[in-house]
Amino acid sequence: MGLNIKDLKITSPDIGADGQLADRHANDRDNTPPVLHISGVPQGTAELAIICHDPDAPLPWGFTHWTLYGIPAETAEIGADADTRFRPGPNNFGRTGYGGPQPPAGHGPHRYYFWVYALHRAVEGEPSMREFLEKYADAIIEQNRVVGVYER
């Protein structure tokens, strides 16, 4: 199946025009996920998945902050209650659910990619980000992202 990147959109009123994420989203503060708006979900989508990943983390594979599965295709908003409404998976903090930004002090700005994936089949269980991408890459109809920035 060919990848279509023109229709699916993800935006956030919590990510400012300059891309900044507020302190309330940080792991060591309120640890509240930003609100995400989803539109343009392609026909044939069985489920949506969300992954938040920091490629700037000083680790070989970056740092996964959030994996979220079981999101119905008609969902237009992912809010602060997402981990109770949908199926959270593991993050690199060793927990499940949202774990906000926590870059090392003085390491400079880190980018937080909030990816939305439209899938033609449902995700089973709660895979890690790498497991998800390996097992479900062929099920991705479309994907898109919004990027937030956070610095200590």
Automatic annotation (TrEMBL):
InterPro entries per UniProt: PEBP (IPR008914), PEBP-like_sf (IPR036610), YbhB_YbcL/LppC-like (IPR005247)
Family: Belongs to the UPF0098 family.
Name recorded for this polypeptide: YbhB/YbcL family Raf kinase inhibitor-like protein
Originating organism: Phytoactinopolyspora halophila
